[in-house]
Amino acid sequence: MKMLKYSFGLLATALIFLSSCRDFVEPNVPYSEFDNGAYLRTIARTSTTFNFFNLAGSKFALTLEAVDKEDGATVETVEIRVRHRRLIAGVGLKYTPANDVLVKTLQASDFKPNDQSRFLRTAFEITAAEAITAVGLTPAQIAGGDVFEFRLVLNDKFGRVFSTNNVTTNVAGAPFYASPFQYNVSVVCPSDLAGTYAFDALETFCGKTFSGSTVWTAVASVAGAYTVNDGTFGAWNACYPDTWGSGNVRINDACGTLTMTGTDKYGDSYSMKVLSSTPTVLTFEWVNTYGEFGTVAVKSNAGKPWPALK
């Protein structure tokens, strides 16, 4: 009797298990009636910044792959739209124009077969000049730190539209899909001032003049920032003498405008004023809140002239 009950229990369990497996394998969901969308997978971000110092040679360029149920053949057009964005201190973001405008349209014929996947691909580029004109500005009105927001709008042959307003977070951000439909192109000011330079101290607070070397080390976490190994450029050693020690002073390059920040080991802060800048010599004054000051002429290194600085 006990064995019969045990066998019956096993049979019942097996029937329940088989029933659940059947429901899992053949769910009562009409998958064949589901709608199918389309998206633009980012294959290569060839160029996604504009160089403030070379706007004429800058461009926004991508390689895209059209993914849909027909391997990309449902794409009718892709609109590329743009607007300009600037962060104004104390005010907030300013957009020009308020809504993005059309700068270029890709046609279905622009998407071609490739030897790396079954989906159709296209590559395009938009020059900085084209983007600037499209938003109604001139190159003279562009500043370092500005951003151009490029938005893609995919129109398919069924009349459907896909863009930032209906893309899911997963499709936009996941590496497999890589289809954000929007790309922010920043106006950047490349800076490459790190190095060891010879200099002449033309004036110091104690009246002494001399020559020496200064080391500028790039700050990894801050673009365009360089720590200097001696914020007095040898003046302490020549005038007292004293050593720089644990001082932390930086020279900051913001699109060619140099500033000096930080303090020495006594807590006094530093600032600078550029007097002149040529490819071979950068001359500036430094001063600290203790009243010490100096004028130095820093020489460029061979093959690496100073950029236009102020």
In short:
This protein folds into 2 domains: 39-188, Immunoglobulin-like (Sandwich); 195-299, Quinohemoprotein amine dehydrogenase alpha subunit, domain 2 (Lipocalin, Beta Barrel).
Description:
Residues 1-25 form the signal peptide. Keywords: Signal. This is DUF1735 domain-containing protein. The protein is mainly beta. It is built from four helices and 17 strands. The chain has two domains: 39-188, Immunoglobulin-like (Sandwich); 195-299, Beta Barrel (Lipocalin). The strands form three sheets. An eight-stranded antiparallel β-sheet has the order 14-13-12-11-10-17-16-15. Strands 2, 4, 5, 7, 8 and 9 form a six-stranded mixed β-sheet that branches. Strands 1-3-6 form a three-stranded antiparallel β-sheet. The protein is elongated. Mean pLDDT is 90; it is low at 1-8 and 10-32.
Largest sheet: 8 strands, antiparallel
From the helix content, strand content and strand pairing, which structural class follows? mainly beta
List low-confidence stretches: 1-8, 10-32
Q: Termini separation (Å)?
A: 99 Å
What is the spatial order of strands in the main beta sheet? 14-13-12-11-10-17-16-15
Question: Strand fraction band?
Answer: 35-45%
Question: How many DSSP E strands?
Answer: 17
Q: For the record, what CATH class of the largest domain applies?
A: Mainly Beta
Number of helices: 4
Mean pLDDT: 90
